Amino acid sequence: MSAPTLAIVAAGAMGAAVARRLTTAGCIILTNLDGRSPATRARAAAAGMHDVPMVELAARARWVLSILPPSDALAFAARFKDAHAQSRSSQGATAAAIAFADCNAVSPETVKRIAALFTGSGVGFVDAGIIGGPPREGYDPVFYASVAPEDSALLEEFAGLKRWGLNVSLLKGEGAGVGDASALKMSYAGISKGIIGLCSTMILAAHASSPATAQALLHELSASQPAILQRITKSVPNMLPKAYRWVGEMEEISAFVGGGEAQVHRGLAALYARIERSLQEERKGEEGGEDVRVLRAFVEDAKRVVGQGQGQE
Ligand SMILES: NC(=O)c1ccc[n+]([C@@H]2O[C@H](COP(=O)([O-])OP(=O)(O)OC[C@H]3O[C@@H](n4cnc5c(N)ncnc54)[C@H](OP(=O)(O)O)[C@@H]3O)[C@@H](O)[C@H]2O)c1
User: Fold this and answer.
1) Ligand 1, atom 43: nearest CA belongs to which residue?
2) Is any atom of ligand 1 closer than 6 Å to the C-beta of 133?
3) Which residues form a coiled coil (predicted)?
4) How far is CA 90 from the centre of its chain?
5) 23, 47 in Cβ contact below 8 A?
6) Among 53, 84, 175, 277, which is most buried by a count of CB atoms within 10 Å?
7) Is 287 exposed, middle or buried (0-12, 13-18, 19+ CB in 10 A)?
8) Predicted pLDDT of residue 91
9) 263 CA to middle of ligand 1, Å?
């Protein structure tokens, strides 16, 4: 069986790493770099991706994997749909079948709106949600996938991408359809990123009361919740460069949860926006950046305390 041609947009931390996994297995990976930053262009080149116009991408790829900031997922799908319509009108009956997998952290409602864009367009649609970090040596995240009940053959074909290195897990069975893979992703991320957001919120609030309060919080966590303190030492620094992207993700989770409880992740979206503002102030060398300094200092102190605790064992 010859390796398929796929398209991945964009070459972000996740998209480029997935592309590298697939190019290593012999797949041709197309992308479109119009308007993209030098960092994205460099990642695309390193992963062996080919930059082509959107219309060519729509004409050549069997699968399009949309892997970009959640807030851009719907707009990109609409852009791709237009490119596909253009490529179809020039290729006519000779046009090859193509399927679009939205792999972003979007709410089931958003993914259903994306799926609806493709109704009657000749583009197959898979709802996918990635759980885990970018692929690296010896590690692959899971691509959970679900489809409309009538598209089960397409779901099996998506599962066939395992052969080329994509770690696919199918979400099928009673009641499963478009929206469920995204619901799973929202539920998982709502817990994992929610915990990090909650810890960061309380560290900042404790410090705002007084630096002594933050220190007391650290020592009480060490004494009574050492697993949480240990987790903070890793997860808070890992979160900082992703805070900007988590704003949109928390908003999607909030829409997914709905009702009064939607306020929980809406509040965390505000927290991640606040952290991103603080990072930008720090980057520009402006006054501010205080929140990021507080979080980093807490983590450094926590590492020392955790290290001392382990030394005593
Ligand atoms: N990273 C992870 O650990 C992880 C884990 C699970 C799921 N995911 C999912 O993967 C998706 C991407 O995450 P990521 O970590 O790869 O993000 P990222 O590193 O921030 O990269 C985002 C990429 O999207 C590009 N981009 C931004 N706006 C775009 C647009 N309108 N059209 C086309 N490309 C655009 C960016 O290009 P510029 O550089 O030009 O801005 C960049 O290359 C998200 O939906 C996320 O939920 C990520």
Assistant:
1) 12
2) yes
3) none
4) 34
5) yes
6) 84
7) exposed
8) 75
9) 25
Which residue of 20, 67, 107 sits with most ligand 1 atoms within 8 Å of its CB, as the best mutation to test the pocket?
67
Q: pLDDT digit string (tens) for 132-155?
A: 999 999 999 999 999 999 999 999
What is the amino acid identity at position 297? A
CA 117 to chain centre: 21
User: What is the rounded CA–CA span in Å between residue 146 and residue 175?
Assistant: 11
User: Domains in the chain, ordered, with CATH?
Assistant: 5-176 (3.40.50.720), 183-312 (no CATH)
**Nearest Cα to 99, choosing from 79, 84, 109?**
84
| Token pair listed for 154 | 């397409």
Nearest-angstrom CA–CA distance, 199 and 286: 26
Residue whose entry in the numeric block shows the structure tokens 């779901």: 155
Compute and round to an integer the Cα radius of gyration of the chain. 22
Encoded tokens for 58: 């729509």
Amino acid at 14: M
Q: To which residue do tokens 């009538």 refer?
A: 150
- C-alpha distances (whole Å) from 311 to each of 168, 216, 224, 302 are 41, 21, 18, 14
* DSSP helix/strand/coil, 231: helix
